[in-house]
Design brief:
The complex is a heterodimer of chains A (350) and B (344). Chain A has 350 residues and is of the alpha+beta class. Chain A is built from eleven helices and ten strands. Chain B folds into two domains: 2-85, Pleckstrin-homology domain (PH domain)/Phosphotyrosine-binding domain (PTB) (PH-domain like); 130-320 and 329-341, no CATH class. Chain B has helices spanning 71-77, 83-92, 95-126, 130-147, 156-170, 205-210, 214-229, 232-254, 259-291, 297-315, 333-341, and strands spanning 2-9, 17-23, 27-32, 36-41, 46-47, 56-59, 65-68, 149-151, 180-186, 193-195, 200-204. Classes of the chains: A alpha+beta (350), B alpha+beta (344).
Amino acid sequence: MVVPSTEGGAAANTAGPEKRYAVEFSASAGEYFRIWIVNLALTIVTLGIYSAWAKVRRRRYFHGHTRIDGEGFEYRGNPIAVLKGRLIAVAAAAAFYGAARFAPYLIWALAIVAVVALPWLIVRSMAFNAHNTVYRNVRLRFRGTYLKCLGLLLWTGIILVVTFGLAYPYFKARLMEFLFRNHSYGTTEFAVPDLSYLGIYLRAVGLGLFVGLAVSLVGWLFGTALPDSRSTASVIGTLVGYVGYLFIFSYIRAEIANATWGTVRIGKIRFECALRTNDLFVLYLVNIIAIVASLGLATPWALVRAMRYQAQKMTLFAEGGLDSFVVAESAEVSAAGEEIGEMFNFDLSL
Amino acid sequence: MIEFDAVYYDGRTSARKAARVQAYTQSLYVTGEGGFKLEVPLANVRVEPPLAGTRRILHLPGGAQLQTDADAALRALFPRSNRLETWVHALESRWPLALAGVVVAAAFSWWCVVYGLPLAAGLVATHVPVQVEVKLGEQTLASIDQAVCDKSDIGLAKQDKVRQDLAALTARLDDGYDYRLEFRACKGLGANAFALPGGTIVITDALVRLAENDAQISAVLAHEIGHVRHRHGLRLAIQAAGLAALIAALAGDAVSITGLAVTLPTALLQSGYSRQLEDEADTYAFRRLKEIGLSPKYFAEILARMEGQKRGRAAAGTDGRGGFGYLSTHPATAERIERALSAP
């Protein structure tokens, strides 16, 4: 399964000692469906306790089936660590919910707690994930510190407030730089140049204006053509709005992934990410329809499809092969940060 | 002796070496590319559990590892490791068992949602002090006042009369609740009344005007007292939290369940819970009305009038919910009227 490319088109890319590696994704929907449904059944029957083991199995499955040069990734998260993290997360969520419900005058105190805790959650969850992601028996590592993260969030937060959110591309770029630059593969650090997403977001805003126009046009057409169909018009208008939103979402997702991964260097490894907006949009649309129509049973299929597409569009180029990365010394990392983050529903994906 | 092929990583670099492993009862002997040799006692080897389509991994002392596809060999060598996950793997490997998982999951969640949660919520509710309920009620009233309701236009004399009727209904109940009545003009709600946790009952001006006599208002109040006494507000809140937790636990692994897919069943289930509670409150109301010498037929009358008004609004197209009968939070009104008229 070694894949130095034999395609004629890639010849230019493999000039010199640089080798081309495709990212393969060998998961199958049927296989994952069985894992998923057994996870679900055991989680329900154990009143949620098994969910920690379920999560580790899911991660192990997807890591193991993501292969470069024939070698799969490995997920080493410990279910007991995940369970502990989850229990802490549940307690924190209950405290938060209870306080918000019964003591709303504490809301400012809670907001401050959230601001203080957020960098900790981000840093801890990145560290836990990195520490437990292994390729060729070499762990990833995340060394971002709480203070750096807090400083970043406060600084960009102020700018976001002052500009009424218009500085979001700036915030996103600084955050991605922070996340990437603090990762390393073994002892080899990730490097990215200064990022800018301004152009991507400007084009997305243009798309948004276009969608808004389309929605009002649809509303106007239906509203005037058939006086009785005001509600039909609003339903269709909403639908067009959602589909338009999905398209913009796909656009931002594809462009940011492509722009960012295209500049990442890990030692002598570089990447090429070639996601296409149209592909992603159709993929997401079909996934959503399939999941809703199957009452959720198509979720594993949808997930496998999405991950396969993203893997297929990722290519690695490594000068001198993948054999020379060195393991770093590292201590164990607790799962609490990641689990609390999941509980409060924020997701950071590279 | 068992023999198998593996890939070896030394735990210091990412260099991959092909290896051949010979396993005896006590130790593994690894020989590989570049002529390296290694002896590892079996007791020092930690095996990762099996998982469909992925290589098995053996962690050796010092961070080295072997990866192999020789599943059968590992099962023979480490019969007692990863028992839980080996069993889970067996479940995951067979379609009939996996499909049985669908049935188990569905049946258990159905049981939880239909019986388990209401049962648990009822149990928890009995242990919550009344002061907490009062607090919850105050907040709910405050948010209602902010969002949907304005001050009442009902004359003070009429308000006093209705309050006296409530006092008659709640006299000597001794259930620890301090019943209070609030009049409000709520545009979107039409003729309506609702019980907040802790004993506050809100009645809309439209309902006061819709009633033909005071006995009909008393009938509605009796129903709301039933909600308060049975702690329905609190139970619904607890059930909602429990349901959210349950769905979150499931969605945790289902990953990309969309917002819609989660909120829609929640709303449906919530309305199912409400139906049970309405029935309970009705039953209480019929009994209480009889106790103070009023006939449950007044409840039937006011229900019929409320239904008539709702129909009128639906026909006029101002009630957006016209077509969604099944989403109604009150059991089919005809059925409830029937019950009121035949109440023993």
